[in-house]
Structures are given as C-alpha cells and as structure tokens.
Design brief:
The complex is a heterodimer of chains A (about 120) and B (about 190).
Chain A (H helix, E strand, L loop, with lengths): L6 H13 L8 E6 L2 H6 L1 H14 L5 E6 L11 E5 L3 E5 L4 H13 L14
Parallel strand pairs in A: 1-2
Antiparallel strand pairs in A: 1-3, 3-4
Chain B lengths: L5 H14 L4 E9 L4 E8 L6 H13 L11 H10 L4 E6 L5 E8 L11 H10 L5 E8 L2 E6 H7 L8 H19 L5
Parallel strand pairs in B: 1-5
Antiparallel strand pairs in B: 1-2, 2-4, 3-4, 5-6
The chains are: A alpha+beta (about 120), B alpha+beta (about 190).
Chain lengths: ~120, ~190
C-alpha cells in the first residue's frame, strides 16, 4: 500500500520536471464542464484523463481545471482548450480517449482536432 | 435523471461547496454491516444559504411543468432521492455565514442503493477545481479505514502553490488502492 511518505519521491520528480520545463506550453488552459449535466454525461473521467495526460507528457504551463455549465448540456462532456496559438477551441462529447488525443495533437502537436470541435458537431 | 454512482453525487455536492467559497471541504463515507448503513457526509465552511428559501424554490420549480428543465440546482434533490429510495434518510444543515453540511444515509444492502463508485476519480476532480482549498476524505468500513488530507500533502510538498498533476495522480492511486484494500467487494 502506498503511504503519503511516497510523496517525497514525487517532489523530487517534480523538481526534475521543472528543469525540463517547456515554455511553449505556457498559458495553455483546459477547462472541463463539471456542472450536474456534465457529470451525468461522463465529464469526470475526461478531466482526470486530461490531468493524467498532462502529467505523463510532463507538460509545463498547462493548467487543467473545471468549469460550470455553458448552456450546451446535450453536447456534454465539453472541454474548452485555450492556447496562445489557436485561442479558445470548444470540444464536445468528450471521452477519456479523445482527451488524450487532444493533448497529443492540439496541445503538443499544435493541430486542433477538428472532428471533435463544436463546429463539426452541430 | 439520476447518477449511476454515489461518488458522482458526492462530486456534484462538493462542487457546490467550492462555489460557496469554502476553504475546507470534508467528505466522509462510513459503512457498517451491523447497522446495515452507508453514511455519506459532506461538510464545508463556505458561505452557506437559507435552507427554507431553497426548499420553497425547489417546490415551486417542481410545480412548474412548463418551465425548462435546467440541470442546475438539481444536485441536492438527486442526492436526497438516492438515499431515500433505499429506505434511508437525508439531512441538510446550512446557515448563512457558517457553512453547509449534507448527510445521506443509505441502507447498505438495499438493492436500490447505487454503488459508491470511483471516489478516487471524484477526489482527483475536486483537486482540479479552480482556487486553493483543503480537502479531506475519510473512508471507513466496519472500523477499518483511511484518510486523505490535502493540507498534509501540501506541507510534504513544501507548500508549493498551484496544482501538481503528479500529486493528483498519486492521490488518485492512493485512494483507489486503499479503497480496494478495505472493501474487498464487500461494502460499497
């Protein structure tokens, strides 16, 4: 069983990540709708998939957070991804797998995953 | 509408505490075979609200069939119903300025009780919400249990501000493993 003492190891790991920081991801924000409608549609594993993926790829400057209902309940789970390059992109009907792809292609690769955006799902 | 897992109700209610500006949110899940109860409590020190006014508003809303069914504001009702349909009970205490406490008591072995579900994911999602606050989760089943306190974790991490995705992953795994260790498919 893990104990909280294991966090010391995480702290050291965090230190090494800081040294490798990649400034190109600064000011990148991922917000997942977590109002009652979002939760019911499956937003919880989507936000944790984003968080885990940011951790796995050791991305620095990317913030993963929650947001409220933006009035598009039938399109939930919704994720808003804001980058300096593309501004705000709204992804709809998200899943954990789609979240991983958005991190890899949009945030790391710099290419919006068009097939998941709200404009292509009306 | 209802949630498939109680841990989703818990996330929904705890996010009300986040919105209420709480600097401390305490969640506890206690199962007892002897009393055949599963008790879920969520307490915060947020702004609180007027319970009477809330109940009046809810009653009015339910009477307005023509009103659009918005999902906002349904969380407490969903949580209440999830407990009461098992034959359990629900209590809500809140006062302006002194926080809110919600307690749902389920009949542990009722076939109508939804599974607790993934509390590790619920806690991780709470750690991802905007702003800084302390979160405490305690889970006990027949006297065996564990606690996670983000204030303690923060201290061990040298009180660095902001989110640390490595820590969030660690806490998620910690809750998952410990829940499995005490549960062994018996309680939740």
């Amino acid at each position: 069983m893990k104990t909280l003492a294991d966090l010391q190891a995480i702290k050291e790991n965090l230190q090494s990540q800081m040294d490798l920081r990649n400034e190109s991801h600064a000011d990148t924000r991922i917000a997942v709708g977590m109002a009652t409608c979002g939760i019911a549609a499956g937003a919880r594993p989507v936000v944790t998939a984003f968080s885990d993926s940011v951790q796995e790829h050791k991305l620095h400057g990317v913030s993963v957070t929650l947001m409220g209902c933006i009035g598009l309940c039938s399109q939930e789970p919704i994720a808003e991804v804001t980058t300096p390059k593309d501004g705000k992109v709204i992804y709809v009907k998200m899943t954990p797998e789609k979240a991983k792809r958005v991190v890899e292609e949009h945030i790391i690769g710099g290419n919006v995953v068009k097939e998941y955006t709200i404009d292509n799902n009306k | 509408m209802e949630f498939e897992e109680l841990s989703l109700n818990i996330l929904d209610i705890a996010l009300n505490s986040v919105k209420a500006g709480a600097s401390l949110i305490k969640i506890s899940v206690t199962a007892s075979t002897e009393s055949d109860r599963l008790v879920v409590e969520i307490k915060d020190n947020g702004v609180g609200f007027d319970v009477n006014a809330y109940e009046k508003e809810t009653a009015q809303r339910l009477n307005q069939d023509s009103a659009p069914k918005k999902s906002g504001g349904n969380g407490l009702r969903l949580f209440k119903e999830s407990a009461e349909k098992t034959g359990g009970s629900f209590e809500l205490f809140s006062e302006k300025g002194s926080g809110t406490s919600v307690k749902a008591e389920y009949i542990l072995n009722s076939p109508l009780r939804a599974p607790l579900g993934d509390m590790a994911e619920t806690f991780a999602a709470l750690m991802l919400s905007e702003g800084e606050r302390d979160l405490v989760y305690t889970c006990v089943a027949d006297g065996e249990g564990f606690t996670v306190n983000t204030a303690q974790i923060k201290e061990q991490n040298g009180n660095a501000p902001g989110k640390n995705y490595g820590t969030i992953k660690f806490v998620k795994d910690f809750i998952k493993e410990n829940t499995e260790n005490i549960n062994k498919n018996r309680f939740f």
